[in-house]
Amino acid sequence: MIRWVYAFVDRPRERFERAAGFWTAATGTQLSQRRGTDGEFATLLSEGTDACVKLQGVTGSGGAHLDLAVEDVRALADRAVGLGASVVAEEDDLVVLASPAGLSFCAVPWRGESRRPPVVAGTRLDQVAVDVPGGAFEAETGFWGGLTGWPVLTGSRPEFRVVRPSAELPFRILLHRLDDPRPTGAHLDFACADRAAARLAHEALGAVLVAEHGHWTVMRDPAGGTYCLTARDPETGALG
Length: 240
Fold this sequence. Notes:
18% of the residues lie in helices and 40% in strands. By secondary structure, the chain is of the alpha+beta class. The protein folds into two domains: 4-109, 2,3-Dihydroxybiphenyl 1,2-Dioxygenase, domain 1; 123-230, Roll (2,3-Dihydroxybiphenyl 1,2-Dioxygenase, domain 1), CATH 3.10.180.10. The protein has an eight-stranded mixed sheet with strand order 2-3-4-1-5-8-7-6, covered by helices on one side. An eight-stranded mixed sheet has the order 10-11-12-9-13-16-15-14, covered by helices on one side. A hairpin with a 2-residue loop joins β6 (86-91) and β7.
């Protein structure tokens, strides 16, 4: 059973401070002390609730990934491998894995997290969107549904599948079938009560517009990473 989910904002190490400034402001959080050999990790802390977003400085352009917090890390890792994942590394009490389509994620110990952060200025960071090449889409969808045990729903368009958790968990997974053969990647999505207002607020924090679509707006943060503002209810995650 997945007890908690952490989403990671992965950005180039040399842009860590820029990423930290933007993402803490956009989520109404404060940055923890940096951790790791080179200070490459930090947590976005939300007062009175449990953290669910972390920042990692990486080599390369970055993206996003998730950590699944469970009571039995080895059991989750073994189940993932049985469903087609591969083990990348084992570090202390966590296991780094790659999904069948190549998305990195981690199995980590659950430490009692249960209090989901609130909506902030009409928005909530609540979705990890995984962009999957068409040939791997069905297998990847089956993998995440099987691993989490969450229901898999058809999204607002035929190329979307939503792996939806119970309401107390902070992140859901959106799988997006790509038309081109680029590698699997991931980014984060905000649910926005007012997408236009959210765009203006994020631009004031240094983000820039990349593209407008029917139900979502693609933005680029000051560290160069992309994310989306979506026209979904920040309380329920449902499309408004």
